[in-house]
Write a structure and sequence with these properties.
586 residues
Length: 586
């Protein structure tokens, strides 16, 4: 407030800025002066300056300045002139070097300013010659997923929309030693929603930012076609969200539903579109580089194509029960927040789930709701959740009482439709979960994270938790088979492999885990403090007092609590070995 009342600094905040500028103070902020003539090169921000703007100064020389934008720019004369660093996205050199453009973080080694680390939309790079050359740090499992999907191949493939790394597809089956060469980019830009056709093999509907939707033929790329809906006039164009939602109808594989500011429908695979709703937003005119008042979530009922739900970034939620002939606003009892996901139930026709988020208004409350009557009335199913922004909710495909939630920090599961929630952390780091899908055949939960790529969680043991099981005092869920990596003699293991166990306890209490060989010999005992609900247990695959892992084979697990004991078998198997591939020139 004091800054804006007057003085030399006031002009920095009251003068309209029409381009990128850099100011310098030599008296601790008492006064400021622009370091250059005119504006900085437009390439520093391209058309989206809100995404960048960080500046770093060499700890050794105050006149060496780095500016982070689309390219990385450097000045050696105190900001009078700047040059793009070609190796770091200069002249948008993506594809010509190992450095992805769009830079967000930088660190200069205070003991050796020639060592410069940069973080960008492609990961991490380092320079040891003050930015003249960079090398990519390629061994980090990093990917910012916006959306996730799957096909029905055997083994099936996973499709992801990635932040500024396009739409990619890769295999579900994992072999130790395999790198990211198995993943293929099928569309560029900022990968948004993607849905492979489950009836037409090789056909994939995918989009990049602002509703740029394509119908792709992976078997014949010459048939790839842009199918983004277009108005015949320019007086009132459609508004598309950065991540424009669309879906393939469950009831007709040739029917697509897409949300702009209106709901649009195609019955011929996207070749032609019709409007099936009015503008479902408040139509507020908000200036800026990013469209607002747009549809952000869509859901179609598994029971009938006539029921479609739509949610918007300005807090509106709608339903049609007649294929779009009429729409009903269903916001009674809901906050005015950005709608992140809608999920229509496969078990009850009128049941629908909803998540919202308020972080753009510095509101980090947990907004998750359910309705049993097509949205006429909503009930908060926050339960015992902490305050976290909610991004996605999914209903289980087998057990109607189980629902999954992805937040800005982790993933959760509820076994009672939202009355109580349990963390799905296990080996999942603290990270934002942006999307989740359930593969119905494999019964696996695909978790798309906005930092560490894709995680896959087998659901068979969670789906065991029927109301009958939940009434028991103790239940050890079926453990997953553990693959032991191949390790040559004398080599250290490349990964710390552990057995992840899940134990349900109705009331909790002090318990014990006993691990035996197949012949019944006890090799490990662990005391447990079980809480009511689901408990994550970990065994490091080592016998008591041993440094080496146990051998592959079958082991017996026994969990006890009071007079109750539950037993399961655990299999440890050697992982398949992948061999290095070589290419030999003729």
């Amino acid at each position: 407030a004091d800054i804006l009342q007057g003085g030399a600094n006031a002009a920095l905040f009251t003068t309209q800025v029409k381009g990128a500028e850099l100011y310098r103070s030599d008296d601790g902020g008492e006064s400021w002066k622009k370091t250059h003539e005119g504006f900085l090169p437009n390439s520093i921000v391209n058309t989206y300056g809100y995404y960048f703007g960080k500046m770093f100064v060499s700890p050794e020389n105050e006149n060496v300045v780095y500016l982070l934008g689309v390219p990385l720019m450097k000045s050696t004369d105190g900001g009078k002139t700047f040059k793009e660093i070609p190796e770091a996205g200069g002249s948008y050199g993506y594809g010509y070097s190992d450095v992805h453009p769009d830079h967000h973080a930088l660190w200069i080694n205070p003991n050796d300013p020639r060592e410069v680390w940069i973080g960008n939309d492609g990961g991490l790079n380092v320079s040891y010659d003050a930015g003249r050359t960079f090398q990519r740090i390629a061994n980090l499992p990093l990917a910012q997923c916006y959306t996730i999907s799957f096909d029905l191949e055997t083994p099936y493939n996973i499709y992801v929309g990635l932040q500024d790394n396009g739409v990619n597809v890769g295999p579900r089956d994992f072999v130790f030693g395999r790198r990211d060469r198995d993943w293929k980019m099928i569309l560029g830009g900022d990968g948004a929603f993607v849905e492979p056709s489950l009836q037409e093999k090789g056909i994939v509907y995918a989009e990049y930012q602002f509703g740029s939707l394509f119908r792709l033929n992976l078997n014949n790329p010459r048939e790839n076609k842009s199918i983004k809906p277009q108005l015949k006039t320019v007086q009132s164009p459609y508004r598309f969200n950065w991540l424009t939602p669309f879906l393939i109808s469950r009831h007709n594989p040739f029917t697509l539903i897409l949300g702009a500011n209106k709901v649009l429908k195609s019955v011929d695979r996207g070749d032609n579109w019709i409007e099936i709703s009015p503008d479902l937003t408040d139509r507020r005119n908000i200036d800026g580089d990013v469209p607002f008042a747009t549809i952000t979530a869509l859901a179609e009922s598994p029971f009938t194509p006539e029921v479609i739900y739509a949610g918007t970034d300005d807090g509106n939620v709608w339903v049609t029960r007649n294929s779009g002939c009429s729409w009903e606003r269903i916001t009674a009892g809901l906050p005015k927040k950005w709608v992140t996901r809608l999920e229509a139930s496969r078990f009850q026709p009128g049941r629908v789930y909803l998540t919202m988020i308020g972080y753009r208004e510095d509101d980090f409350s947990t907004y998750v709701f359910a309705s049993e009557d097509y949205g006429k009335t909503w009930v908060s199913i926050k339960g015992n959740l902490p305050e976290e922004g909610c991004n996605v909710i999914r209903e289980d495909t087998v057990n109607e009482n189980i629902i999954y939630l992805g937040t800005d920090l982790t993933a959760y599961v509820s076994l009672d439709r939202g009355k109580t929630w349990h963390s799905l952390r296990a080996n999942l780091p603290t990270l934002p979960v942006y999307d989740m899908k359930i593969h119905p055949r494999e019964r696996e939960l695909l978790i798309g994270t906005h930092s560490r790529g894709v995680f896959v969680l087998p659901l068979k043991k969670i789906q065991e938790l029927t109301p009958e099981v939940l009434g028991k005092a103790l239940w050890l869920l079926e453990p997953d088979e553990v693959q032991l990596p191949f390790v040559r003699r004398g080599e250290a293991p490349t990964a710390e492999v552990k057995a992840q166990l899940l134990v349900y306890s109705k009331d909790g209490g002090a318990g014990k885990l006993v691990i035996k060989t197949s012949s019944g010999k006890i090799i490990k005992e662990m005391g447990l403090e079980l809480k009511a609900g689901l408990n994550d247990l970990t065994w490091d695959l080592r016998a008591e007092g041993q440094k080496e892992r146990v051998a592959a084979g079958e082991y017996q697990l026994e969990v006890s609590l009071g007079q109750e004991t539950q037993s399961r078998k655990l299999k440890l198997v050697m992982a398949r070995i992948s061999f290095m591939e070589f290419e030999v020139d003729d």
